[in-house]
Amino acid sequence: MKYLDEYRDGKLAAKIVDEIRRIQTKPWVIMEVCGGQTHSIVKHGIDQLLPEGIELVHGPGCPVCVTPLEMIDKAHAIARRPDVIFCSFGDMLRVPGSEGDLFTIKSLGGDVRVVYSPLDCLKIARANPDKKVVFFAIGFETTAPANAMLVHCAKEQGAKNVSILVSHVLVPPAIASILQSPLNRVQGFLGPGHVCAVMGYREYEPISARFKVPIVITGFEPLDLLQGTLMTIRQLESGRAEVENEYSRVLDRDGNKPAQKLVFSVFEIGDRKWRGVGSIPKSGYKLRWEYREHDAEKLFDVKEIDTKEPDICISGLILKGIKKPHDCPAFGKECNPQHPLGATMVSAEGACAAYYAYGRHLEREKRDQPTAITAGGVA
Amino acid sequence: MCLAIPGKVTELYDKQGMRMAKVQFGGITREACLEYVPETTVGQYVLVHVGFAISTVDEEEAKRTYELLEQMDQLTELNAPVVEEIGAPKEKP
């Protein structure tokens, strides 16, 4: 209970935990989908606060984490070209590809720039008409409206030297893929709040009905996460499986219609590979044919790159909720944020990196040490 | 980078046919595109993700969320460099 006092409203948090304890009759496994939620859960120790038998497992909702190594290598191949200005969000810069990261490329003379908004690429392109400006368009549904607007404006303004390298993934197909796995343990989901601020939550309803699984769209404050967990357990205990909205102060069922409209005018749904997980059908966006002149994969003849992830890494199983970071023998040892071996360690929002950031690798070391038996009992 | 950051709209203007705003996040002011929440007025709070407002929120929600993101060290994207339009006058700090 050591974390309860740190909450804005410790009493309310304790009340929710008590209510979960009161209604719970059996063990349940619940997955939070969004990387921001994972980070908040681990930071605030919410998983450790819940009654025994309620297990939180951490889903694939960190966009940096699930960007495939092949795509990172493609990005690096483009960024190395002397005729290219390669633009990216800051958190992709330190993600290692097969040979170094974007920082290394920058230090070797590549023109790699961090941008705040994808629209910055238009300004960079106007200032550098003799260069090709390529933006690394990664992300989930939350980021898609921004990336779509860049392409829309580039076409409208005739900015022929602007293109994007698309690695966009979608939450609902990932949830369906997890539920279809024969090894699946997840019985309920905390849905991603900010993704649904854009997309609404209609598309989660058929998944909830088909797999008979509760999905509660949840924010990422400690009280939100506890309340979302309580709502999920209420459904599980009463045999209901519905989509509920814990985060109604920010979003509704329909989401942001103008954003969806532009996203679907620029992108269409296609198969995508997820790092650690593999290919999931219809799980991402690709540019529509009308925008092919702004598609970096078509413009730059980057060959398919063969990559190999270390055998020891179990990030795929972690992303599906089958394993936890502590189950990995490399966690916190040869795999750490400075030398990540796989998806869940490459960004602060990945489960392994969050566990590491909040000292949970040290807990394991403690646990791994042989327990000393003394005259007084277990020391 | 999957979370949006709340900020206060302090100025509205059109730029290249797009609805834009100055949005204040704590001590930092950045430009945001308001095309997806076009009804927003000065003084309202918006959730901004990579330079795009995706939703409006009330002041209390905005403050609470901002503080939490600050504690979680999730505000670094606000420090990304400002890209100036070539030939445009430098912004006053």
Provide a quick synopsis of the model.
The complex is a heterodimer of chains A (379) and B (93). Chain A has 379 residues and is α/β, with parallel strands linked by helices.
How much of the sequence lies in strands of chain A comes to 15-25%
- Under CATH, the topology of chain B can be stated as SH3 type barrels
Distance between the termini of chain B: 26 Å
Our estimate of the beta-strand percent of chain B is 35-45%
Domains of chain A, number: 1
Structural domains of chain B: how many? 1
The helix content of chain B is 10-25%
How would you describe this structure to a colleague?
The complex is a heterodimer of chains A (379) and B (93). Helix content of chain A is 39%, strand content 20%. Chain A has 17 helices and 13 strands. In chain A, α1 runs parallel beside α12 and α2 (35-44) packs parallel to α16 (351-357). Chain A is globular and about 65 Å long. Chain B is mostly beta strands. Chain B has a single domain (5-78), classed as SH3 type barrels (Roll). A 5-stranded antiparallel β-sheet of chain B has the order 3-2-1-4-5. In chain B, β2 (18-25) and β3 form a beta hairpin. Chain B is globular and about 35 Å long. At the A-B interface, α2, α7, α8, α10 and α13 of A face β3, β5 and α1 of B.
Features:
heterodimer, A: 379 residues, alpha/beta, Rossmann fold, 17 helices, 39% helix, disordered C terminus, B: 93 residues, mainly beta, SH3 type barrels, 5-stranded antiparallel sheet, 1 helix, globular
Set out the fold topology.
The complex is a heterodimer of chains A (379) and B (93).
Chain A: H1 10-23, E1 28-34, H2 35-44, H3 46-49, E2 54-61, H4 63-66, H5 69-79, E3 84-88, H6 102-107, E4 111-114, H7 120-127, E5 132-139, H8 144-156, E6 162-169, H9 171-180, E7 188-192, H10 193-199, H11 205-211, E8 215-218, H12 222-238, E9 243-245, H13 257-266, E10 267-274, E11 278-287, H14 296-299, H15 315-319, H16 351-357, H17 360-368, E12 373-374, E13 377-378
Parallel strand pairs in A: 1-2, 1-7, 3-4, 3-5, 5-6, 7-8, 8-9
Antiparallel strand pairs in A: 6-11, 10-11, 12-13
Chain B: E1 5-15, E2 18-25, E3 28-33, E4 45-49, E5 52-57, H1 59-71
Antiparallel strand pairs in B: 1-2, 1-4, 2-3, 4-5
